[in-house]
Amino acid sequence: MSQPHNTAARKPRTGNLIVPPSPTEPLTRRKRSATDTRQPAHLRYYFALVALVILVFSPLLISDMLWSEIDSVERSAFQTMDNWQQAWTLDSIRQNNPIAISSYFIEQAIPLPTATVHRGINILLHLFAAVLLLKNLETLKLPAAFSATLIFALHPATIQTLFWAGYRSEIIALIFILSALYFGIRNRNGRDTIVTIALTTIACVVHPAAFAIPIILALVILYKKRSIHLNSFNRLLPLLCLCLFLGLWINAENPNVEGADSVIRTERLYHAGQNMAHFTNQALLPINNALFHRFDIDTKYETDVGMNLMPFLLFVPFFILLASNIKKKWSRAILLGLCSYLALIVYGTTQDGHFINGALAHEDHHLYVALPMIVALIVSALGRLIYSMGTAGKALWVMGCSLLILIEITLSATFAYSIAEPTKMWTSMSERWPNAWEPKAALVNRIDLSDSPEDSLFTNIQLINMLQDVLEMRPDLIEERKQLARTFVAEGQRSNALREYKHILRETPLDNEFLEEAAAFLDKVGLSWDANKTRDRMISTQ
Q1: Dihedral (CA of 223, 228, 233, 234) sign
Q2: Over 90: is that where the pLDDT of 509 sits?
Q3: Residue in 292, 252, 237, 282 with CA at minimum distance from that of residue 71
Q4: What domains can be seen in the chain, in order of their start residue?
Q5: Distance CA 261, CA 428 (A)
Q6: pLDDT beyond 50 at 449
Q7: How far apart are CA 510 and CA 513, in angstroms?
Q8: Taking 60 as the threshold, does the pLDDT of residue 470 lie above it?
Q9: What does the alpha-carbon distance between residue 152 and residue 161 come to, in Å, rounded to a whole number?
Q10: Does 315 score more than 80 pLDDT?
């Protein structure tokens, strides 16, 4: 059969083999570049990712604080379990992440400092999640895949999840979600389908946000195909049925809240709106970094609910714009990223975070699972827009992205360093939460037990002021009152020290060691009769 004579339609040849041009390949050699945002990441990129994450987050390994007794909030069911087998009962599987809980028991058997091991494991799991994000973005052939991955991996909003004990469940959940999405997006054969179903099952068991996996895969299908038919979504039916079954099974024994009045519903909506505003702000502009952020509960619901719903309402114009351009690939890509973020963040917005004293607070760990989606959306969109400007755009992208990553490294490293030393961490926390006694008590205990030179930054007067603040809110704390009495003695304030010693002797049953200490002080201030009475109490307790 003769070839057509139209040279414009003729395909390039390699010998006698006709090679059709790749749809993802640049049309001219001039447009091809080593910095092409669609090129797969090479080994040096993975090395840079690992090196930067370890460099930025390594200060977290210094801290020796883990499962603080000052924290009155249960961050994980591990805190109430005696062995790992309890995590695998049906009731526990319905309510908790058994994989995360089991890992806490395993790390205790490693002959290294437990706090260092705990955070080291978290950092390694976070790196694995970042690699999975990169694989997903490359599979979707999205631009700036490595840049988006690096920005997520170094994001300051991830630090609470990596540092504060009990939040490994979020990292493990993200790993299974991204793994299920990777095989679901690739979808080469029946084995990929089976693996997707298996990983989705595990993901749904360990975290409620994973129920969004079928929705995200449906958006992926929409993104890949310009013309959509219903049969294109047939492969998602098993996943949808699986998620419906798991949702019913997990919530089978959870009591439903009945008779919730409009005030409660309004309060929940208010909390969700404020969470959404905080999470979106932390994802896009993470300049105010802390382990726990204050929750605004002083404003009235009637006026503030509307303001906190603004983050939801602002998405409406975007959806209208995307719907009118749905046949364009850039529109479908934005729809994929935006809806994926909303689908994964909705669970986090409905959860109340708590400070260590139980007060309402914003916690960034609720953002962790959805953070890769909004980062990939913003970075990929900017990458495509700037990179389309040609040679000038490439240079602009390299400079802009480098500057952004440098700023992010600075923010994350500064935040990690500020919480690496427990003294610095509790000092910062007590300044942010001046009405809470727990950070001050933790700081005082740390100063009392530590011999590091940094403790000399706090004078006896400063220590007295902190102890008095703590005892004003919690007068029943005997150990803190003992420390206050000793500090008064060290500062030469004998009358104040006498008042505290008498208060302790009058109100509290004491051990012989402290009774001897109190008697020696009473002798020193000339109260021999009181000292003898105190020693009589020592004898009577023997």
Answers
A1: negative
A2: no
A3: 292
A4: 43-252+267-420 (no CATH), 424-508 (1.25.40.10)
A5: 39
A6: no
A7: 8
A8: yes
A9: 13
A10: no
